[in-house]
Amino acid sequence: MTAAGTARRAGADAAGSRPLRILITVGLVAYGLVHLLVGWLALQIAFGAGGSGEADQQGALATLAGQPFGAVLLWVTAVGLFALVVWQGLEAAIGHRNVDDEKKRLGRRVGSAGRAVVYAGLGWAAVKTVTGAGSSGGDQKQEGLTAQLLGMGFGRFLVGAVGIAVLVVAGRQIWKGARKKFTRDLAGGAAHWVVRLGQVGYIAKGAALAVVGGLFVWAAVTYDPAKAGGMDDALRTVHDAPFGAVLLAVLALGVIAFGGYCFVWARHPRVTADEGSADR
């Protein structure tokens, strides 16, 4: 067996191991819980009871930290999310070998790499929250970073590029939900109600990300870093629009639906890095 084949087999063995499978389940449950909390915080904003809490992932982690045994919950969340990083890292390196078309396989591996980055960022945020290093607002940090970028020579184009990249991701989330592409992430197929739950969740999440991307593009156009922001700013922007409270409530319920879908996903995650190990 070649060195590459040996590496693939080792990776497949790791992906198929029971400990990693358990941690993947924990991570997906944690990921779903974060989205449930984001949706709940957004509902509070929609009904005028948002307070000073941020309706984003950082705000969700802060809410989790305030619960009984919050520190333990956050550490479990962090460990689970970093397990998802390992999972998607293996998927990016040796997974999706069941896809015959090389371009499609490459596209899915790039998507897995992107997921790994998202999970790593959220896991690191959980660690910072439990250690007390993540108390400042995420949107304020983003506005500060945007201001620094706008101060650079090509900063305006960089901020605009970030916004466009977020819009592309948002469009992909909406497309994935509308075309039911997320069902290939589930082992053994999905019930009709699970498909509907995933559709609503992915489309709502994509719509929220689209507002985030739009804010970055608008910040680049107006040369105003205050126009940029994260998920909290995006949801509050929706709230301030005509019929915004209703729109935000619908969006929040969609994000909650995505959280619920993650719980189902946690029970039936498809690990293609294990499936595709033909040379085992």
UniProtKB/TrEMBL annotation:
InterPro entries reported in the protein's UniProt record: DUF1206
Pfam families per record: DUF1206
Keyword presence, Transmembrane helix: yes
Domain DUF1206: 26-93, 110-179, 200-267
Transmembrane segments: 20-49, 69-90, 110-127, 147-171, 202-221, 241-264
Superkingdom of source: Bacteria
Keywords: Membrane, Transmembrane, Transmembrane helix
Name of the protein: DUF1206 domain-containing protein
